[in-house]
Amino acid sequence: PSPASVGRAPGPPDGGWGWAVVFGAFISIGFAYAFPKGIAIFYKEIQDFFGTSYSEIAWVSSIMLATTYGAGPISSILVNRYGSRPVVIFGGLLCGVGMVSAAFCTSILQLYICVGFVTGFGLALNLQPSVIIIGKYFLKRRPIANGLAMAGSPVMLCTLAPLNQFLFDNFGWRGSFLILGAILLHCCVAGALFRPIGAATASGKTPTIEEGKEIPKEEVTKDAMEMSNPTNVPMENKTEEEGGKDCCEKINQYLDFSLFKHRGFLIYLIGNVLMFLGFFAPIVFLAPYAKHIGIDEYSAAFLLSILAIVDMIARPTTGIIANSKWVRPRIQYFFSFSIAFNGACHLLCPLASGYTGLVVYSIFFGLAFGMVCAMLFETLMDLVGAARFTSAVGLVTIAECCTILLGPPIGGTLIDTFGDYKYMFIKCGAVMVLAGTFLFIMNYYNYRMLAKEEKERKAKEEDPKSVRTENEGRNNWNKETAQDGPELEPLREEQEGLKKEVNGT
Amino acid sequence: QLSEPIATIQAVNWKTQGSPSDHLTIGHNLSTPGPDLTTQEFKQATKENVSNVTFVEYEVLLPGECAPSTSMEKNITLDSAARIELSCKLDNKHSYLKSLQVTWKRGNETISHITKTENSWSIQLSILDSSKLGSYSCTLKACTSYLTFSYFALVPKIEGKEKPIISYEGDTAVLTCESSGYTPIAWTWYMTNGTEQIAINDSLLADKYVINRKSANTTHLKIQKLTKEDDGAYWCEAAFELGKSKGKLKLKVLSFMVPLKPFLAIVAEAVTLVTVVLLYEIYSKKKEKRA
C-alpha cells in the first residue's frame, strides 16, 4: 500500500495494532535469544549418545549464536527488499525444518548443520525484522515498545528451561527436538502479526509540527532528510530511479554501506563491539563460579533464575524510563551509564563473599543486563533514524558476532590460566566500563555536533538565496556529518527538489 | 558437675591417592568443638605382603562426662584392600577420667587386641577381603551411660539413574554408569528378564550390544536396533577388590508415534493461529474500505 492510502494520521501509529506487533516481536526476539541457551539441557544426553566431548557439543550453541548474529546483513537485505512479514514467516519455517531434521540426525556434524546453521539462520531471520518493525510502528513510545519486546528474551528463557526439561524427561532428545520444531513454528504466528506499514513517516514535516515538543528535533529532521534519501524510499519509487544508478547505489539500496560514514553509527558500532567482549561471559560463568566457591548446584542455578526475573522486570521499566521526557533526549547518556554500571557490578563481584553476596550481585547484574538490552536497539534507532535502521542493525550484528563469540572463551582462558574467577570478572568489568565511558564521551561530542549542524541548517533554510550554495555547503558538511554517501549527492539534490513539490503539504 | 556435654566428636581423616573415603563427613558436633586434632601424624604405608595398602586414621575425641547414651555412625568407603587404624581418644582436658571403660566391637563380638595409650584406645584392621567389611564400634562407658561410635566399612556405592532413559524403536541407546572417584576392577552389565538378571555378553551379540569402558570410572552400554523388548531395567555392576556393587538404570523404548501426536497438534495450532491472524487482517481492511 502506498503511503497515501494509509488511512491513519501520517507518522508511525505509536499504538493500536502496534501493540500486537510488539507482542509478535516479544515472541520472535524471545526465541532468538533464549533458544540457544535453552537447548543446553539436552547436551549431556547427546554427548553420551554420540560419544563426544563437552566442547564438541557446546559448538552447537556457538554455531547457532554465530549464525544468528552473522546472518544479520542477509536479514537486513531481505527486509529491505520484501518487508518484515515474509522474512519472519520464512524464518519460522526454517527454524521448524531445522529442528525437525535435527531429530533424525545420526552424527554430530549433522547436528551442527541442522541445529546450528539452519535453525540459527531461521532465528536470524526472526530477530532483525522484529526489531526493525518496531521502529516502523513506534516513534513517540518507541523506547517502551523496545523494552517490552526485548523482555521476551528472559521470559522465553524462564519458560523454555523447564519446558525443555519436561520434554526431555518424556520424549528423550529426539522427540524433544521434533516437538521444539513445532513450537518454533509460532515464530510464523509472530510474523503474521507484522502487518506491513508504509514508511516510518509519510511526510517528514508534519511530525515536526505535531510532536516537536516531545521528540528532539534533530531526530525528526534526520528522519525527514532520510525520507528524501532515495535509498530508503518505499518500493514504488524505486523502479523509477533504478535506471539512473550505478552498482554502488544498487548495493546501498539493499544494505546501506554509507552508514560507515555516519558518525553516530560508528560511535555505536565501536562502543558496542567493545562492550560485547565482556557482556556474556559473566552469565556463562556465574553458576560455575558459585559452585567453585562452594555453593551447591541448585542454589547456583537459582542465582541465574534471580537474574532472569530481575531482567524481566528491568527491561520494560527501562523502556518506560527511557521514554520519559527527561531521558529520551539524552538516551545515549543513559545507555552509556547502564553499560558502565554493568561493568562496575562485575568489578565488584570478586568482593562478594558467600551466597548472600552473590545473590546481591545477581540482582544488580540482572538489573544492569536488562537496562542495557532494553536500550540496545533503541539507541541505534535513535542515532541513525528508523529508515536506515534496517541496514544498520544488520551491519552492527555481524560486527558484534565476533566479540560475542570471543568473550566467553577469553574469559574461560583467563580462568584456566590463573585458576581464579576474579580475573575474568575484572576483565569483563574493565571492558564494559571502558565501553561505557567511550560511548559517553563520544555521544557528548556527537550531541554537540548535531546541535551545531541543526543551527547551521536552520540558518541556511531561512536564507532563500542559499539554495544554490546549499550544494557546496552540503558537500563541505558531508565530510563532518557524513550522513549520506557522497555518491548519492548529485541524484539526491534533484530528488529533493522533486520531492518537495510532490510532498509539499 | 562440669557444664560441658559428654562428647565432642571430630573425625579427622587423611587420604592417599585414590582411596578412602569421602563419605566421612566432618563430625556431628554434639557440643562446641574441642581442639583440632592435628597432633596425630599421618603414617605412610609400610611395605607388607598386602598390595595396594593405604593407611587412614579415624579418630573420635571424647571428653569424658556423664550424659545420656548416644550413638553415632560413619561410613568408610573402601575400593581396595586397606589397613585401617581406628581409635577412640580422650580430649586432654578430661583425661582425669581414666576409669573410663572403652570396648571395641566387631559387629557384636568384642575385639580383644586393643592398643592402649594414655588417653586413646585403638584397633588395627587389615581389610583384605569382603569378609572383613562390616561395622566396627567403640563404646565408651562413663557413669551409667554409653557412647557408641560405629564405623561401617563398605564398598563404594554405584549410583544408577532415577529417571528412565528414553529412546525410540530402531534407534540406539547409550546407558552410562559412573563410580565417583573409585576405580573398579571390572564392569558387568545385566539385563532383567522377568525376575532374573542376565549378564550381557557383548562379544556374542556384537551387533546389538557394545560395552565400552570410556574411562577408569565410567562405562557405556550401547544398545542398537532397539525394540520394545529392550524396554526395562538394566544393572551395571562394578567389581572392586573387596566386593561388588550395582546400580540400576531404566530404559524406555517408545514408538515414533508418541512424540508425533503432540508435534502434529502444535503444528495444527500454529497454522490455525496464522490463518486467524491473516483472516482478521483481511476482515479489518475490508471494514476500513467500507468506512
From TrEMBL, chain A:
<keyword id="KW-0769">Symport</keyword>
<feature type="transmembrane region" description="Helical">
    <location>
        <begin position="144"/>
        <end position="163"/>
    </location>
</feature>
<keyword id="KW-0813">Transport</keyword>
<dbReference type="InterPro" id="IPR011701">
    <property type="entry name" value="MFS"/>
</dbReference>
<feature type="transmembrane region" description="Helical">
    <location>
        <begin position="389"/>
        <end position="411"/>
    </location>
</feature>
<keyword id="KW-0472">Membrane</keyword>
<feature type="transmembrane region" description="Helical">
    <location>
        <begin position="423"/>
        <end position="445"/>
    </location>
</feature>
<feature type="transmembrane region" description="Helical">
    <location>
        <begin position="298"/>
        <end position="314"/>
    </location>
</feature>
<feature type="transmembrane region" description="Helical">
    <location>
        <begin position="265"/>
        <end position="286"/>
    </location>
</feature>
<keyword id="KW-1133">Transmembrane helix</keyword>
<dbReference type="InterPro" id="IPR020846">
    <property type="entry name" value="MFS_dom"/>
</dbReference>
<keyword id="KW-1003">Cell membrane</keyword>
<protein>
    <submittedName>
        <fullName>MOT2 protein</fullName>
    </submittedName>
</protein>
<feature type="transmembrane region" description="Helical">
    <location>
        <begin position="175"/>
        <end position="194"/>
    </location>
</feature>
<feature type="compositionally biased region" description="Basic and acidic residues">
    <location>
        <begin position="454"/>
        <end position="473"/>
    </location>
</feature>
<feature type="transmembrane region" description="Helical">
    <location>
        <begin position="57"/>
        <end position="78"/>
    </location>
</feature>
<dbReference type="GO" id="GO:0015293">
    <property type="term" value="F:symporter activity"/>
</dbReference>
<feature type="domain" description="Major facilitator superfamily (MFS) profile">
    <location>
        <begin position="18"/>
        <end position="447"/>
    </location>
</feature>
<feature type="transmembrane region" description="Helical">
    <location>
        <begin position="16"/>
        <end position="36"/>
    </location>
</feature>
<dbReference type="GO" id="GO:0008028">
    <property type="term" value="F:monocarboxylic acid transmembrane transporter activity"/>
</dbReference>
<dbReference type="InterPro" id="IPR004743">
    <property type="entry name" value="MCT"/>
</dbReference>
<dbReference type="Pfam" id="PF07690">
    <property type="entry name" value="MFS_1"/>
</dbReference>
From TrEMBL, chain B:
<dbReference type="GO" id="GO:0098632">
    <property type="term" value="F:cell-cell adhesion mediator activity"/>
</dbReference>
<keyword id="KW-1133">Transmembrane helix</keyword>
<dbReference type="Pfam" id="PF07679">
    <property type="entry name" value="I-set"/>
</dbReference>
<dbReference type="InterPro" id="IPR036179">
    <property type="entry name" value="Ig-like_dom_sf"/>
</dbReference>
<dbReference type="GO" id="GO:0007156">
    <property type="term" value="P:homophilic cell adhesion via plasma membrane adhesion molecules"/>
</dbReference>
<protein>
    <submittedName>
        <fullName>EMB protein</fullName>
    </submittedName>
</protein>
<dbReference type="InterPro" id="IPR013783">
    <property type="entry name" value="Ig-like_fold"/>
</dbReference>
<dbReference type="GO" id="GO:0070593">
    <property type="term" value="P:dendrite self-avoidance"/>
</dbReference>
<dbReference type="InterPro" id="IPR003599">
    <property type="entry name" value="Ig_sub"/>
</dbReference>
<dbReference type="InterPro" id="IPR013098">
    <property type="entry name" value="Ig_I-set"/>
</dbReference>
<keyword id="KW-0812">Transmembrane</keyword>
<dbReference type="InterPro" id="IPR007110">
    <property type="entry name" value="Ig-like_dom"/>
</dbReference>
<dbReference type="GO" id="GO:0007411">
    <property type="term" value="P:axon guidance"/>
</dbReference>
<feature type="domain" description="Ig-like">
    <location>
        <begin position="68"/>
        <end position="150"/>
    </location>
</feature>
<keyword id="KW-0393">Immunoglobulin domain</keyword>
<feature type="domain" description="Ig-like">
    <location>
        <begin position="156"/>
        <end position="255"/>
    </location>
</feature>
<dbReference type="InterPro" id="IPR013106">
    <property type="entry name" value="Ig_V-set"/>
</dbReference>
<feature type="transmembrane region" description="Helical">
    <location>
        <begin position="263"/>
        <end position="283"/>
    </location>
</feature>
<keyword id="KW-0472">Membrane</keyword>
<dbReference type="InterPro" id="IPR003598">
    <property type="entry name" value="Ig_sub2"/>
</dbReference>
<dbReference type="GO" id="GO:0030424">
    <property type="term" value="C:axon"/>
</dbReference>
<dbReference type="GO" id="GO:0005886">
    <property type="term" value="C:plasma membrane"/>
</dbReference>
